[in-house]
Amino acid sequence: ELPNILISACLLGNPVRYDGTDLFIDHPLIKKWLDQDRLIAVCPEVEGGMPVPRAPAEIQTGDGKLVLSGKSCVVDVEGEDVTNSFIRGALKSLKMALDNDCVAAILTEHSPSCGSNRIYDGSFTKTKRDGVGVTTSMLEQNHIPVFNQEQLEDLQVYLESGDWQD
Ligand code: SF4
Question: Strand runs (DSSP E) across the chain, as ranges?
Answer without folding.
Answer: 4-8, 39-42, 57-59, 74-76, 102-106, 118-120, 128-130, 146-147
